[in-house]
Design a protein that fits this description.
Blueprint (H helix, E strand, L loop, with lengths): L11 E3 L6 H7 L5 H9 L3 E10 L4 E10 L3 E11 L5 H9 L4 H7 L5 E11 L6 H6 L4 E10 L5 E13 H9 L1
Antiparallel strand pairs: 1-5, 2-3, 3-4, 4-7, 5-6, 6-7
Length: 177
């Protein structure tokens, strides 16, 4: 359950126009976050799993940090994936690899509809993974929520993404703790 990783009672929903321009560039798009940041930063991204659990009702809950191979982490994401609505090979890849959700879906030619987009302003206290929260340098975090739906309207995932900008050695320390 994502409530183990994030407390949204700290979050305030805001409009797109309330996002500072740099955050709007990162958050306001109908694209996979992985692809967006890869294009903006001209880098290859992977994830570090801070938490992952497959629930008995076939949900993959994960807290991940999206980072490049040069030492910068860009996004902390909290994702609830509905495995039953994905092909078996996609499920296996998501569970057993460090590939971002967006990259896996894109490579498998799964192009979801982005639905129910909301923008958030919160503080780092909303992140309940202590080692992760303590290494985020910013007090205020901008983020977004959206659902990913199949072409037939079945839910693939609910996604909360927050811009973090952490150095990779901080992420490594989190994983070693």
């Amino acid at each position: 359950m994502l409530t183990q990783c994030i407390d949204l009672s700290f979050a305030k929903y805001i409009t797109q126009s309330q996002l500072p321009e740099v955050y709007s560039t990162i958050l306001d798009h109908d694209d996979y976050m992985t692809l967006r940041i890869s294009r903006l930063k001209k880098c290859t991204l992977s994830i570090t799993k801070m938490f992952q659990e497959v629930s008995p009702n076939n949900m993959l809950n994960r807290c991940v940090v999206l980072h490049d191979d040069k030492g910068t982490a860009y996004i902390a994401a909290f994702i609830e994936i509905h495995l039953e609505n994905l092909p078996l090979d996609v499920r296996e890849t998501l569970i057993h690899s460090n590939e971002p959700l967006g990259k896996v879906l894109f490579e498998k030619k799964i192009y979801p509809k982005f639905s129910n987009r909301k923008y958030l302003l919160t503080n780092r206290e909303c992140i309940l993974v202590p080692y992760l929260r303590d290494r985020i340098k910013m007090n205020h975090l901008y983020g977004r929520f959206h659902s990913l739906l199949t072409a037939s309207g079945k839910k693939i995932a609910d996604v909360y993404e927050f811009v973090t900008y952490m150095e990779m050695d901080s992420v490594s320390q989190v994983c070693e703790a």
